[in-house]
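Thread: quick sanity check before group meeting

JM: Hey all, I'm pulling together slides for Thursday and realized we never actually wrote out the predicted structure for the chain we discussed last week. Dropping the sequence here so it's in one place. If anyone has concerns about the input, flag it before I start.
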Amino acid sequence: SMEMGSTFTSNMPKFPAAPNDAASVQQFLRNRAKLPHLHARQRANTITIESGPEDDPFSHAQLRRVAVSIWELHMPTHRGRWENAHVRGLLNDVLTTLVDDFGWTLEAIG
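JM (edit): ok, ran it. Output follows.
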């Protein structure tokens, strides 16, 4: 029998983010958290929260969709990798935790 996790399928996200998810994140950050310098960029099942110029952005945090309505928070390490922050839940709940508990990581750089 064929193995379930072949290399081809493992690269395809099972739960891609919907087009309006990044917009929801950006709206949350601007309106609820009053952080207008941040923008949300979407790729596959991840939404990266960035600031700065588009061609050389600074990454502040990443949300990964791991199930239909479950998102995980990942934070950048000083080595430029992503580290699981062990926060998961509904998108709005994860965003609230990010702003409340990791707010210092969202401050404008420079």
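AS: nice. Residues 33 and 99 are 7 Å apart (CA to CA). Residues 19-32 form the longest helix (14 residues).
JM: adding both to the slides.
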